[in-house]
C-alpha cells in the first residue's frame, strides 16, 4: 500500500475563519440582482473545482456540470419554468396565491450563465461503498457539490439562484438527459454587487427563519433543545 500523506489541520486563523463564516451567512439565493457581465472562465473553473471537491458517497463523484449559455436552450428552459410556475401558483390559496404571484422565482434569462448539476445514478457501478443501504446518498453527494459551488460563488462575488420549479420531463427533454441521470439543481449565475441581507422570501413576507434552538434536540427526537454550556 502507498503511504498515506497527512498534513497539519488545526483551526484556521481568525480572519480565515471569519471569511468562511461570512460566505456561509452572506450567501443568498439570487433571482433579481444579476449583472449582465459574463463570468470569466477562470472564475467558472474555480467554482466548478469547488463543486467537484465535494464529499461523495464512496468517492463516487456522481455529478456532472452542464454549462448552459445558449439563448435558445435557456429560452426553452424559461418556457418550462413558466408552465410549471402556472401550475405551482394554483396550489396556493387566497392571499398566499397573490403573494406567490408577486415573487420572482428565477433569473434564467437575466443571468449570463445557467448551470445544471446532475446526478448519474449509475456512477460507481451497482455496489458503491456507503450506498449499500441508502441508495439516495448519491443525490445527497450531488447536493454537497451544489452547496460548495454556492459558497465559493459568494466569495467570488457571483450570485447563484436555484430554480426547481420544472416538470422533470421538461428538463430532461430540453437538456437531453439520459434516463439514469437526475437533474438535481438548475442554477442561474451572474455577478452581483448587492444581495438581500436576509432570505428574499423573508423580506417579502413569505416565510421566516426559525430560531436554531427550535431545530435542535438532545439524545432522541423530541428531547430537550441543545444549548451551549453556560460560561
Ligand atoms: C433545493 C432548493 C430549491 C430551490 N428552488 C427555488 C426556486 O425554484 N425558486 C426560488 O426562487 N428559490 C428557490 N430556492 C431558494 C430558496 O427559496 C432559498 O434558499 C431560501 O428562501 C433561503 O434563502 P437564502 O438562500 O437566500 O438564504 C431553492 C433552494 C433550494 C435549497
From TrEMBL:
Q: Which Gene3D superfamilies match?
A: NADH Oxidase
GO molecular function, a single term: oxidoreductase activity, acting on paired donors, with incorporation or reduction of molecular oxygen
- GO annotation terms (biological process): cobalamin biosynthetic process
Q: What is its EC number?
A: 1.13.11.79
What keywords are assigned to this protein? Cobalamin biosynthesis, Flavoprotein, FMN, NAD, NADP, Nucleotide-binding, Oxidoreductase
Q: Does the keyword Oxidoreductase apply?
A: yes
- Nitroreductase domain location: 24-191
UniProt entry tagged with the keyword Cell membrane: no
Q: Quote the subunit structure annotation.
A: Homooctamer.
> What is this protein's name?
5,6-dimethylbenzimidazole synthase
In its UniProt entry, the species of origin is given as Paenirhodobacter hankyongi
Amino acid at each position: 500500500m502507498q503511504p498515506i500523506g497527512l498534513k497539519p489541520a488545526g483551526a484556521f486563523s481568525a480572519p480565515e475563519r471569519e471569511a468562511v463564516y461570512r460566505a456561509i451567512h452572506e450567501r443568498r439565493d439570487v433571482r433579481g440582482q444579476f449583472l449582465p457581465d459574463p463570468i470569466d472562465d477562470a472564475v467558472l473553473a474555480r467554482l466548478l473545482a469547488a463543486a467537484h471537491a465535494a464529499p461523495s458517497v464512496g468517492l463516487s463523484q456522481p455529478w456532472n456540470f452542464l454549462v448552459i449559455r445558449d439563448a435558445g436552450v435557456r429560452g426553452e428552459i424559461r418556457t418550462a419554468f413558466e408552465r410549471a410556475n402556472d401550475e405551482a401558483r394554483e396550489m396556493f390559496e387566497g392571499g398566499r396565491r397573490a403573494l406567490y404571484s408577486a415573487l420572482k422565482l428565477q433569473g434564467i434569462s437575466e443571468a449570463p450563465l445557467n448551470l445544471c448539476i446532475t446526478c448519474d445514478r449509475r456512477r460507481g457501478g451497482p455496489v458503491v461503498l456507503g450506498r449499500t443501504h441508502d441508495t439516495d446518498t448519491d443525490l445527497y453527494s450531488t447536493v454537497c457539490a451544489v452547496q460548495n459551488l454556492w459558497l465559493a460563488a459568494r466569495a467570488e462575488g457571483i450570485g447563484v439562484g436555484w430554480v426547481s420549479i420544472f416538470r422533470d420531463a421538461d428538463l430532461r427533454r430540453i437538456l437531453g438527459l439520459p434516463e439514469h441521470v437526475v437533474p438535481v439543481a438548475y442554477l442561474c449565475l451572474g455577478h452581483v454587487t448587492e444581495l438581500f441581507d436576509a432570505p428574499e422570501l423573508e423580506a417579502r413576507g413569505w416565510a421566516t427563519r426559525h430560531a436554531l434552538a427550535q431545530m435542535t434536540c438532545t439524545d432522541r427526537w423530541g428531547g430537550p433543545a441543545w444549548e451551549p454550556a453556560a460560561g
